[in-house]
Amino acid sequence: MRSFRILSRLLAYPQANRLDHMEEMKSFLAEEGLLRPRKLAKLYEFMDELAATDLMQAQETYVDLFDRGRAHCLHLFEHVHGESRFRGKAMIDLSERYREKGLQINTSELPDYLPLFLEFLSICEAAEAQELLVQAAPVIATIGEKLKRRKSGYHTVMEVIVALSGIKIDQTAIQKAADAALPEFETLDELDRDWVEPEAFNGAPDCGICSSDGLPKAQNLGGL
Question: What is the domain partition of the chain in residue ranges?
């Protein structure tokens, strides 16, 4: 399903060859018809805005949002397991599912990276892709809520991904999850201190979407 592949590209680090093909990607989304008109229109607005942004500015914004801190991190298990021992097992399980579908993972990227996960969904059958996405949707919705609070257009991409899961998200629970989510940092020194001294084996904070043992309530796909 090309829609998932396009969403993957929109969440990846901005590159000129992607920004230059926004109209083509919009056509693919319309042709596949997975999104309702209102969601598609909102996504088009974001795509137009991104395409009109200077490339260096788009890249700087992306790094500021997704790389300089953990609040909007695109590695899904970071929001579920944190630095706990469960994350390693979840990574192995998810990597195995990728291999079963013939998806080769670049050694520089982790399997829970959201653009990679969406690439995986694009080669799954529709029913399987939706089933897997349902499991990840609460985490993705929480990241989207954090991005919305930052007034970032990227929250629209998250909303679209959640919409494709077909489930109704409890917005009150997502608001609480976002309140308890991973911290944002104002300076690089704060970020350095956080990464140097991780709370290993303590698990992720209770964000309202995980069970008491630190695992997500929907348990498949290696912990998503």
Answer: 2-223
